[in-house]
């Protein structure tokens, strides 16, 4: 469940930042103008809270409880579906779960209290009277029929007997104190399917490991059908499965990943050497499999490896045409995160200019959810609040390939990695380099990594927005850095852009060492368009020290430009005018000539 820590002032922001590193993936939402530096700014508090609630996001409001009540009161309907809502005192002294007590709010409030050294004001009857919520077992456990949990809790609170039967899982939950050996109602902890009825609350502990294998490109439906038939044939509950597990060569296998998603479970993977260590315990070792992948069994070996040394193979390998499946049982609940590894994920994240207002929610979520982050030190500092407490791998400007390699290597270890870029990662940035490394080296461990490119506001978009609308008609972008592109090629492109009368956005215009090409660019453009042509000089966009100047091509001083600047040269049609006291620059698209009827311009 996503968690939003909502701050309305500076004090609330400071407390939210203290809390954030201890709540994985939590983001700080802040009221614009009062909480500069929040991960996600908003301007309308009530509307923002209602939006979060409607999306099922857990809300920790660092504010008075009344604000949350007034914002969400009209949206309350189904308490079984509502997300946790917690009012947190600005000094951290009290966390009050207002809504979603049995959907994690009570547990979250206690955790917040532990982190901040405060108190959790729990008011739910079952939690207070019994010390546990019957419909909120430990993480990874599932409740087969939560609708009767209230009946059992009421019976216990009335002092009547409720039986406790534990068929699977050696775990301190639930504590036996409130229960009896007799009673008309029963709490049954089991890994068996179909045991629930109107008098039996069935809870499944995660004691089963589901091992799978398949041929490359196997049909998703075939593997899912095999898994469903295997569980049903053994009388085992899908809710008792801790994870779907396989050989690491299958980390990018669509059928395996779809099977885990179908069951709502994590997927964990082991190396061939790790699975071969399970060979003495296999029921169906195969020399053919060993020669193909380096271990004597994939499905059985993976199930046993995940379930642990004390596990037993309760369903030996079952086969379909192109897939295999096996199930192991552990005497204790399985912590799926403690064995094997997940499929590695690499998010190449564009943070735009760096300010929260210009960063997409998708990018913010990726940064908050990453295990580790990689990037140029300045860019990591710009998102420091989001990545607080995470391992950082920084490097100097110019070390782009080293950063990309570090990110890919870490992701190949099964981690979730964010590779941070300014602007847009696909525009003169690291997304291209990442794919170039894939293409050039074709490393199997890299190829199994899931890669996502998360766009950001590019420098040319930011400059255009600040200046007016200079990109209103056809435009191009050209980098003046000749470190990777030959000077002759750059000059050829500049001449072509000038001749085509494009608006031209110049990236990497010049540095302390590169001082020739920008002056040459000015000369080329003056040969093709008048000296009155507008030029935008934009520096430190979206950051402290932002400056946007409007000049003409003839008066353009190239010495005023450095690597933190984007230069935009207008076309022959680009215009500048005064809007009151503000100078605006735009490039007409031809709307003045627009006619009604079928010949009108497209939007």
Describe the structure.
The chain is an alpha/beta fold. It is built from 19 helices and 29 strands. Strands 3-2-1-4-5-6-7 form a 7-stranded mixed beta sheet, with helices on both faces. Strands 14-13-12-16-15 form a 5-stranded mixed beta sheet, with helices on both faces. Strand 25 (534-539) and strand 26 (547-552) form a beta hairpin. Helix 2 packs across helix 3, helix 14 packs across helix 15 and helix 18 runs parallel beside helix 19. The radius of gyration is 30 Å and the shape is globular. The two termini are 39 Å apart. The model has no long low-confidence stretch (mean pLDDT 91).
Name the shape in a single word: globular
Q: Give the mean pLDDT.
A: 91
SS field, number of helical segments: 19
**In percent, how much strand structure appears in the residues?**
15-25%
Largest sheet: 7 strands, mixed
Rg, Å, rounded: 30 Å
CA-to-CA gap between the ends? 39 Å
Widest sheet, order of strands: 3-2-1-4-5-6-7
* Structural category: alpha/beta
The count of β-strands is: 29
How much helix is in the residues?
A: 25-40%
Low-confidence stretches: none
